[in-house]
């Protein structure tokens, strides 16, 4: 199931460990709806924590590993988290943070922190050495919250996106369908699991019984490519900066003949310039399909994809809606625009979030009777393909002219 450095863990091992953690959480009176935070890099411990929490009906809250004390403290307070799972790498951060009273810590190999009445400390290794391997088999409602994933909005203040079990499961099924994932697929993961795209790589490949290979050292891309060849990777996913880095800071072109198993590469996480797409198509092996994808944390990951067959003809498009999702272009009055007319991209589907954690005002701005308002401006062409032209908040007025900053960025990248 999982490969990470010297760790090679099977589904049986991961499920047993997740069950032991789940039974321990239940013994600590963690109940459905309680928030359990996870502060870990991509690892076996992260995967066990995520699925162990979900098995209890509690809400898994992955936190960015880049947080500082002044941002971690208010998030934990807002969540009213009962337990935080981490390891020794983050002890200095935790020690420097004024942790909420009553927050219990579960740490792997703690070295600095000690248990206290304010914040009791438990050993990860002790928890996983004991307890039942049996599935808890709790009856959990599909509409129950599974995860809160924090995203930075245009104001910079993190908003907690509330995703239900049904949200995540429906999006997972849809992605598996259009990427044609099977148990033979082996995914190289360089994106953090605490981001929704990284999380979708984990969920989709576990859903089909595939394999996930974790590499947290993308700063050394040659080593990543070497492992991709050795592990016979079939899929690689990244954001625009991932591919820009691969093209300009790695020997990707030299590895073309060493990646016979690489079935596809997928890109999401924002607009990628045409020049980067064209160079990627030139450098990748001819047999490797490229999927351009579009989504949002609020959509459990994915809203649309451009099928590889249309890559050249519709290179600037975000494609069509994924299975189960409906996309429309609406004007400011909520009326659907005609072909070619610019408006806001609005989405509906079973993958759309329940709202933002304890922020009804922000929720009301994004969700209404029309669906989820992405904030992206775009249009649909005669063939039903969607195109984005920028965000409302990306428009600048210079000398009386409206300028789209995305166009400037594309020219600079070219």
How would you write the strand order of the largest sheet?
A: 2-1-11-10-12-13-14-15-16
Instruction: Give me the Rg, rounded.
Output: 22 Å
Which segments are poorly predicted (pLDDT under 50) over 5 or more consecutive residues?
none
Percent helix: 25-40%
Mean pLDDT: 95
Distance between the termini: 40 Å
Secondary structural class: alpha/beta
How many helices? 12
In terms of DSSP E residues, the strand content is 25-35%
Shape: globular
**Biggest sheet record:** 9 strands, mixed
**DSSP strand tally:** 24
Show the helix and strand layout.
Elements: E1 2-4, E2 7-9, H1 11-27, E3 35-38, H2 44-56, E4 59-62, H3 69-79, E5 83-87, H4 91-96, E6 104-108, E7 121-123, H5 124-129, E8 145-152, E9 158-164, H6 165-178, E10 186-189, H7 196-207, E11 211-214, H8 221-230, E12 235-238, H9 240-249, E13 264-267, H10 274-283, E14 289-296, E15 301-306, E16 320-321, E17 326-330, E18 343-348, E19 355-356, H11 360-366, E20 367-368, E21 371-380, E22 386-391, E23 395-398, E24 401-404, H12 405-413
Parallel strand pairs: 1-11, 3-4, 3-5, 5-6, 6-7, 10-11, 10-12, 12-13, 13-14
Antiparallel strand pairs: 1-2, 8-9, 9-19, 14-15, 15-16, 17-18, 18-21, 20-21, 21-22, 23-24
């Amino acid at each position: 199931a999982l490969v990470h450095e010297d760790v090679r863990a099977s589904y049986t091992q991961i499920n047993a460990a997740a069950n032991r953690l789940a039974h321990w959480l239940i013994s600590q009176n963690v109940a459905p709806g309680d928030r359990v935070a996870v502060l870990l890099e991509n690892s076996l411990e992260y995967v066990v924590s995520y699925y162990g929490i979900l098995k209890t009906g509690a809400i898994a809250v992955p936190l960015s590993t880049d947080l500082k004390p002044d941002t971690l403290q208010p998030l934990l307070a807002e969540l009213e988290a009962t337990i935080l799972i981490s390891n020794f790498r983050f002890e200095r951060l935790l020690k420097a943070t004024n942790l909420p009273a009553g927050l219990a810590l579960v740490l792997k190999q703690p070295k600095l922190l000690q248990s206290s009445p304010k914040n009791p400390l438990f050993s990860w290794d002790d928890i996983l050495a004991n307890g039942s391997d049996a599935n808890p088999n709790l009856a959990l409602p599909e509409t129950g919250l599974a995860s809160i994933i924090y995203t930075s909005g245009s104001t910079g203040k993190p908003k907690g996106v509330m995703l239900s079990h049904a949200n995540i499961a429906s999006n997972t099924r849809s992605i598996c369908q259009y990427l044609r994932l099977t148990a033979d697929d082996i995914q190289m993961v360089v994106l953090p699991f605490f981001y929704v795209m990284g999380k979708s790589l984990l969920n989709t490949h576990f859903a089909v019984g595939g394999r996930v290979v974790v590499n947290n050292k993308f700063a050394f891309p040659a080593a990543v490519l070497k492992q991709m060849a050795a592990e016979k990777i079939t899929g690689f996913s990244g954001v625009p900066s991932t591919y820009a880095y691969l093209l300009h800071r790695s020997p990707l072109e030299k590895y073309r003949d060493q990646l016979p198993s690489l079935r596809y590469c997928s890109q999401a996480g924002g607009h990628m310039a045409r020049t980067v797409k064209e160079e990627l198509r030139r450098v990748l092996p001819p047999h490797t399909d490229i999927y351009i994808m579009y989504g949002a944390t609020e959509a459990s990951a994915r809203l649309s994809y451009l099928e590889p067959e249309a890559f050249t003809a519709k290179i600037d498009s975000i494609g069509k809606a994924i299975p189960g999702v409906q996309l429309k272009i609406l004007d400011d009055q909520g009326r659907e625009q005609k072909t070619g007319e610019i408006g806001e991209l609005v989405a509906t589907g079973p993958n759309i979030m329940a709202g933002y954690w304890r922020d009804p005002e922000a929720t009301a701005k994004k969700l209404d009777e029309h669906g989820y308002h992405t904030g992206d401006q775009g249009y649909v062409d005669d063939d039903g393909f969607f195109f984005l032209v920028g965000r409302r908040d990306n428009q600048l007025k210079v000398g009386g002219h409206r300028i789209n900053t995305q166009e400037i960025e594309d020219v600079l990248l070219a």
